[in-house]
Amino acid sequence: MQLSQLRAFHAVAQTGSISAAAKMLNRAPSGVTVRIQQLEQDLRCELFLRDRQGMSLSPSGRLLLEHAQRLLDMADGTRALMRDEDPGGKLVIGALDVVLVDYMPALIGQFRQRFRNVKLDVRHEASEDLVQHVSDGALDVALTDGPVRSNALESRLAFVDEMLLITERSHPEVRRPSDLRCAELYGFRHDCSFRFRMDRWLADGGVRDMPITEIESYHTMLACVTAGMGAAWVLRSVLQTLPGHQQVQTHSLGEAGHTEIHFLWRCGHLTHNARKIMDVAGELGDRRRTRTWSQVG
Predict the structure, then answer these.
(1) Looking at residue 65, which CATH number applies to its domain?
(2) pLDDT digits over 281-295, tens only?
(3) Residues 155 and 165 in one domain
């Protein structure tokens, strides 16, 4: 029996349906269904009565509900206690790979200067995993593509960036997917939010037969694009850090490229150290905006 299964059970019991629970947890309905099935198999009983009107608790489900709530509260309380039990405590933070490239080094550096006694655990995960692990309480806070809409989660804007389409230098201007004149696109795996957006951009543009090769490295994507093999989506801030970025052509994706990175945490469970790193991030953002304004003036 896993906490993620209990959270799925609790959400369905509260909302009365898989789809509503999925929205609450910000998960795919299929993922919630699987967790409920796993829990029923583990406990060897039926937890819900299913009919056309929705799902209601079975006698076994009613028996489990109160106990599940206590277990979830105890797990959340234990994590908070262990992380804040000493003056420094611990901060477990997850982030997308693109955040680790450009944004996190300055943030972590400033945080370590001010709070040296905080034990810091930084994890790199895909967006869907980040949301799940924040929901489960395995992460204090995460930096992911947002905003994330969930009744169980809260978020705050960290920074705004722009997703660009990159092609070989000689490629004609691209304003829509049908303008692509390449053999394939490069993107991350399906549990990445940026991949979701790329797939939707293609579908909205009526392009459904473009091959997509999954590559887990922006350096490799850039090399393939430079060689004239295809195109890729890359954040502007990340592209600027890659050697050889001047050798590709960039194309604006308009509104589809607008990217917001948000801090994400469980409602009512923002730890002291998570609040500290968000405060540091706010100060860094103010300084960045001040420098930009000075340069414009």
Answers:
(1) 1.10.10.10
(2) 988 875 544 443 333
(3) no
User: In total, how many domains does the chain have?
Assistant: 3
Residue at 84 is within a domain = no
pTM of the model: 0.66
Regarding whether 287 and 201 lie in a shared domain, the answer is no
Give the span between the Cα atoms of 186 and 195, in whole angstroms. Answer: 9
- Are 108 and 146 within one domain? yes
Express each pLDDT in 48-61 by its tens digit: 888 777 788 888 98
Residue 83 lies in a domain: no
Please give the C-alpha separations between residue 104 and each of 70, 164, 214, 247, in angstroms, as whole numbers.
Answer: 36, 20, 24, 26
